[in-house]
Specification:
The protein has one helix and no strands. The protein is mainly alpha-helical.
């Protein structure tokens, strides 16, 4: 697989997933309720 495709896949799939998981962990540790629908993409 060409390197550019790997970079594109990382920035479109992996990076947002990692950021969303980190946000969920931070909000859970602060004491807020975690609602999965609030993290889903709205089109």
């Amino acid at each position: 697989m060409p390197k550019i495709i790997k970079v594109m896949l990382f920035w479109t799939l992996v990076a947002p997933t990692i950021m969303t998981i980190l946000l969920m962990i931070i909000e859970y540790s602060v004491g807020k309720d975690v609602e999965l629908l609030s993290y889903s993409a709205v089109f």
